[in-house]
Specification:
Elements lengths: L1 H15 L5 H4 L43 E6 L13 H11 L1 E6 L5 H12 L6 E3 L1 E2 L10 H15 L4 E3 L23 H10 L3 E3 L18 H6 L13 H14 L5 E3 H4 L5 H10 L3 E4 L4 H5 L2 H10 L4 E2 L8 H12 L25 H16 L6
Parallel strand pairs: 1-2, 2-3, 4-5, 5-6, 6-7, 7-8, 8-9
Length: about 375
């Protein structure tokens, strides 16, 4: 009886297990249960946890970008950086070594501060640097605020500015003297956006922040370490509007000014939801995006991100939002150009404890992202 011949040995084996020798017992699978008193062992703080991956993955060193690069999101030697100044020749040396042709200094402010940036960085190094001006929110309660800001933008362009940068305090912290938050679609700003369109200069705008910044800072927040280190970056509660409300106001403003080009910074500040960003670009042809300080978000979703880059290859600009460094640029090139897997994004693990994956973008897409798209936008400049 074949069935009995199969069953009997198994039954006999079950009785024989206690009699196995020490060497044989050690070959059995280890228990999945925790060791006794495991929770009493010394605690390792998360900030001290730096595991080394055992994955044997390919490492491709990309020392220079495949095509010349325009970094549209930088702050090197801007109007605020007196304590973090880099000698311009050192900056250019890094740019030359990595094939970065131009760096755009977004935070140039206005007036004399703007002029200092232009005199140090722009005029002595033709084609290597550009600078954007900003809005003076301290004058929000002035009579004729709109006209004064238009005049300020005009003055900045005469001095040499080639764009307007809006910081993230707009929509979150800028208030008038009554304490009322100035909404992103406030009509007092409409003449400014229209003037930028008339001049042919882009508006680089950062409103809201990463999605996790609007959630409770607790054990479920994937950016817990970052937010505990910078508690002022949390916008959960405390009277702040929701991320959705801020973004909706911004998108209404975009739609109201179809003749003005908006560079919606940080992948429209919602790289966690590329379906939304894709729909935004489909709906509003005057909007483009860049990915400064969002390599981490895009790099952890390589298939969806690559699809996004291919679909919107004419609407994505290269940006870093990081001080110029050789390895910083090379890390970005590796992410864009190679198929390498499971490596650190630049600054890891500051934004979150995950790795990123290369997208290996086609050359035609790389060239657009690296410089052609930015050249098209800056080529819209109509002068004063």
């Amino acid at each position: 009886m074949p069935l009995l011949r199969r069953v009997v040995p198994i039954a006999l084996l079950s009785f024989a297990l206690p009699a196995l020798g020490r060497d044989q017992a050690q070959t059995q699978p280890p228990s999945q249960r925790s060791a006794p008193h495991a929770k009493r062992r010394p605690t390792l703080l998360l900030r001290d946890f730096h595991p080394q991956s055992m994955l044997h993955a390919r490492v491709t060193n990309v020392e220079r970008a495949r095509f010349p690069v325009i970094d549209v999101h930088n702050h090197v030697n801007d109007a605020r950086s007196a304590d973090e100044h880099m000698p311009p020749d050192e900056v250019i040396q890094i740019m030359d070594a990595t094939n970065v042709r131009t760096a755009v200094i977004l935070t140039g402010e206005w007036g004399d501060k703007l002029q200092r940036v232009i005199d140090e960085m722009v005029k002595p190094h033709p084609g290597r640097f550009m600078v954007f001006t900003q809005i003076d929110w301290s004058r929000i309660d002035d009579a004729g605020f709109s006209a004064k800001m238009v005049e300020q933008v005009d003055d900045a362009v005469r001095r040499g500015a080639r764009g307007l940068k809006v910081m993230k305090d707009f929509g979150l912290q800028v208030r008038d003297k009554s304490g009322q938050l100035v909404a992103v679609d406030d009509p007092r700003l409409d003449p400014v956006w229209e003037e930028c369109g008339r001049l042919g200069i882009p508006v680089a705008i950062h409103v809201s922040d990463p999605e996790a910044f609007f959630h409770p800072v607790d054990a479920r927040n994937e950016r817990y370490e970052e937010l505990t280190e910078h508690p002022d970056w949390s916008f959960h509660g405390h009277g702040f509007p929701s991320k959705e409300a801020i973004i909706a106001a911004r998108d209404r403003m975009f739609a109201r000014h179809p003749h003005t080009t908006f560079i919606s910074l940080h992948v429209a500040n919602w790289p966690e939801d590329l379906d939304y960003v894709s729909a935004l670009l489909d709906r509003l042809p005057n909007v483009v995006v860049e990915f400064g300080a969002r390599e981490a978000e895009l790099g952890r979703q390589p298939r969806r991100a690559r699809e996004f880059f291919l679909q919107h290859q004419d609407r994505i600009l290269f940006g870093t939002d990081n001080p110029p460094k050789l390895e910083m640029y090379r890390n970005h090139f590796r992410w864009l150009e190679t198929a390498d897997e499971y490596f650190d994004y630049w600054g890891s693990p500051r934004q979150g404890r995950w790795k990123i994956y290369g997208m290996q973008l086609p050359d035609a897409v790389l060239e657009k992202v690296y410089h052609l798209n930015a050249e098209r936008i800056f080529g819209e400049f109509k002068g004063r």
